[in-house]
UniProtKB/TrEMBL annotation:
This is Secreted protein. Keywords: Signal. The keyword Signal applies. NCBIfam families: reg_PtrA_PA2808. Residues 1-21 form the signal peptide.
């Protein structure tokens, strides 16, 4: 009888641990992948929209030195 109770307890603990392991991992991983896709799309969009800051161009060439 004690062996039967011990076997029942082991089976119950094993079944509960397997049920918990399959519960939220897939949803969490799916949310993580979705967040990564959204952030990468935003990053690519930011890279496309990024423009270089205008740099002041000198009209006089460096060899002229007219205003020195």
């Amino acid at each position: 009888m004690k062996a039967m109770k011990a076997l029942f307890v082991i089976a119950a603990l094993t079944a509960s641990s397997l049920a918990m392991a399959a519960g939220g991992g897939d949803r969490t991983f799916a949310r993580m992948e979705q967040a990564q896709k959204v952030s990468m799309a935003a990053y690519r969009l930011a890279q496309k929209q990024e423009t270089e800051a205008p740099v002041a161009e000198s009209k006089a060439k460096s060899a002229d030195h007219a205003n020195c």
